[in-house]
Amino acid sequence: MEIRMKSALMWAAADALGMTLKHEKGKITGSMKRDVSFGNLPVTFGMQVVSSWLDTHCHMFIVKVVGNLALFLTVAPTGKDEDVRVHLLNLAKMPGKAESWLEEAKPTSAQDAGKLLGKAVVKSFRKVGKNKWAEVA
Amino acid sequence: MLTGEELDSLKIGDLVEVDPIFPALSNENVVMRTAERPGSIGDTVVFVVTYFGITIGRWEATKNAGGVSWKFG
After folding, report:
1. In chain A, how many domains are there?
2. Looking at this predicted complex, what is its ipTM?
3. Cβ of A69 and B21 within 8 Å?
């Protein structure tokens, strides 16, 4: 049975991705088509959640985008709202397959996951407002 | 994106920048590097395409009567 996740962290993750996330058969699923226009040339990318790790102090997701590009999304409570970060991942430098990577690595925190991902993390951004992001050094 | 004339003028190694995939995150453009240009004018040109240095695919552009057709891989 499909259960729509209603936690604040899950809502924040779905909002950041612009994607409906579902909890099915013990795992998080979600996919969407993203249309990008390169000049007058439209290209559609199929984005899909391929790995997730949920605990009370941080939810983490790996979302494949296209080619070697994926997103690593982390959502953690701050007391008032959520700390939402998205990292661009180079799958060519992943320390393992992206599919189920989080479930196997069992990171203890977003920082721990970042260390484990190492050079696969190319760029990081923190959400600073609705549809507004700031690069994290 | 590219006209037939622009396609004709490209040499191996030439770079073409196009719009970002995630403009809300950054203005960093997608970069297409001309990787293969087999045969004479009108043949398929192959681009290796990257975003933040991450390879996202090989795109092929072919000049034809209707303009330029694209294949994404």
Report:
1. 1
2. 0.90
3. yes
